[in-house]
Amino acid sequence: MPLILVHHTGAKSGRARISPLFYQPVGDNWAVFATHGGSPRNPAWYGNLTTNPQITVETGTETVPALARVAEGAEREQIWAKEITLVPKFAEFEAAAGRQIPVVVLERALGNKVRR
User: Fold this and answer.
1) Percent helix, strand and coil across the chain, each rounded to 5?
2) Separation CA 109–CA 116 (nearest Å)
3) Is 87 contained in some domain?
4) Hey, which residues does 70 pair with through a beta bridge?
5) Does 41 score more than 70 pLDDT?
6) Count: domains in the chain
7) Which of 2, 54, 90, 114 is the S-S candidate for 107 at Cβ 3.0 to 4.6 Å?
8) 21 phi and psi, to 5 degrees?
9) pLDDT digits (tens, 9 = 90+) for 44-102
10) pLDDT by residue (tens digit) across 16-29?
């Protein structure tokens, strides 16, 4: 499973955080999944990204400014369906959690614009 490092800011603490996250490529961007191992609660990084969506993604030798947003509707369903095909364990996590697992798209920022 591919891994990226997401540099983000704590929602409550304001401190710099780094989370290693499994991802799915979505065009030139990345989708990450708030499974929290099947917990009924979202992971802390999810709250951080929704509160402070300006982030940095570190992948290989590239470090990229990005903007986090929660995927919804058909976009979320398409990304999630592909992910559970790739990683069937994620479907088990969703069932165990008793909640819909949030899918967060990390979009590359170009200057003040986000590339979709």
Assistant:
1) 30, 40, 30
2) 9
3) yes
4) 104
5) yes
6) 1
7) 114
8) -130, 140
9) 999 999 999 999 999 988 999 999 999 999 999 999 999 999 999 999 999 999 999 99
10) 999 999 999 999 99
Amino acid in the structure at residue 6:
V
Q: Which residues pair with 69 in a beta bridge?
A: 105
| pLDDT level of residue 111 (50, 70, 90 thresholds) | low
Q: Residue 85's pLDDT is what?
A: 96
Domain that holds residue 16: 3-111
Is 53:71 a contact under the CB 8 Å cutoff?
no
pLDDT of residue 97: 95
CA distance 83 to 93: 12
Can you list the pairs that 12-16 forms with residues at least 24 positions away whose Cβ atoms lie under 8 Å? none
Residues 6+ apart with CB under 8 A from 73: none
Strand pairing report for 113-114 and 62-70: unpaired
Backbone dihedral angles phi then psi of residue 6, each to the nearest 5 degrees? -110, 115
- Does a structural domain hold residue 25? yes
User: Whole-angstrom Cα distance, residue 78 to residue 71?
Assistant: 10
Determine, yes or no, domain membership for 18.
yes
- Domain-embedded: residue 116: no
